[in-house]
Design brief:
The chain folds into 2 domains: 187 residues, no CATH class; 73 residues, 2-Layer Sandwich (Alpha-Beta Plaits). Helix 1 packs antiparallel against helix 5 and helix 3 runs parallel beside helix 6. The radius of gyration is 21 Å and the shape is elongated. A 4-stranded antiparallel beta sheet has the order 2-3-1-4, covered by helices on one side. Helices cover 60% and strands 11% of the residues. Strand 2 and strand 3 form a beta hairpin. The longest helix has 25 residues.
């Protein structure tokens, strides 16, 4: 129960930081960026619709579509963020300070603050909703690689601003996307490297392997090990996961066997399916 409460608090804190980054830096300075804030900034001059209304509408709309296509499991993980973000944005926006900054500086700090918020939410195994959902839908329907879809959608979101803004605004927006990704990576890898190699010894290894495949979509390798003292042979499960998935992996293991022996090391150079260049967690 304590762990669930901590995850809820971290998800709320992450969404609060995301709203601060958007409300203080992105929207006031019309920074073109990825995500729903970038869509709102790009579409505002074209459709003349209030940006907060666009953000709330996109988040709620994508959440409903995601629930229908991706299922109940997705909805449960995302519902808190999808509700908290528009509420925080609507309530706090009138109280944000008006800063006198160079748009380039606003882009840097907006990207960093938003990235930290998104990273905190992802560390809990949740999604911030919004523009994270279309890549997941495309992956399920057409088996497109999620990381490629995310990069394409973020780039298109920023390039959408060329119609109403100039090339300088687009370049500043692309830098915001970069700093956001940088901050997300640092938060996810805090306390470890980008990936973990985990060895698991448990009598319930079959159940654990099935859960890893279903929940984390990761493969496993089984080897035979012999106890030095007991001389008893037992299967040893090897699994490589991203740092953001490591807390979920521990929860899966303890779900079936709290006394399981777990040994993890940092994996600093992982290549292959799911860990290729451009992989985004």
């Amino acid at each position: 129960m304590r762990k669930h409460l901590l995850n809820i608090l971290l998800i709320l804190l992450g969404n609060l930081l995301l709203v601060i980054g958007v409300g203080v830096f992105i929207l006031p300075f019309n920074i073109l960026s990825g995500g729903v804030a970038g869509v709102a900034v790009a579409l505002n001059p074209i459709l003349n619709i209030d940006r907060e209304l666009v953000i709330n509408g996109v988040i709620i709309g994508f959440f409903i579509v995601g629930w229908i296509i991706l299922g109940k499991g997705f909805a449960v993980k995302t519902v808190l963020s999808s509700i908290a973000y528009p509420i925080f944005l609507t309530i706090l926006t009138p109280y944000f300070p008006s800063l006198d900054l160079n748009p380039f500086i606003a882009s840097i700090y907006g990207g960093l603050v938003c990235g930290v918020g998104i990273g905190l939410v992802m560390r809990c195994g949740a999604s911030t909703g919004g523009m994270d959902i279309p890549p997941m839908i495309l992956n399920k329907l057409f088996n497109f690689k999620i990381s490629s879809c995310v990069m394409i959608i973020d780039a298109l979101t920023v390039l959408l601003g060329i119609y109403a803004y100039n090339i300088e605004a687009v370049l500043i927006g692309l830098f915001s996307v970069f700093t956001t990704s940088f901050a997300i990576d640092k938060v996810l890898s805090f306390g470890g490297s980008s990936s973990k190699a985990v060895w698991i010894i448990s009598d319930y290894y079959k159940e654990i392997i099935d859960e890893i495949g279903k929940v984390l979509d990761r493969g496993t390798t089984i080897t035979e090990g012999r106890g030095g003292y007991t001389n008893v042979e037992k299967p040893v499960v090897l699994c490589v996961v991203s740092s953001s998935q490591y807390p979920q992996l521990i929860e899966i293991i303890h779900k079936y066997d709290e006394k399981a022996f777990v040994f993890a090391t940092d994996a600093t150079d992982v290549r292959g399916e799911g860990f290729s260049f451009g992989f985004r967690v």
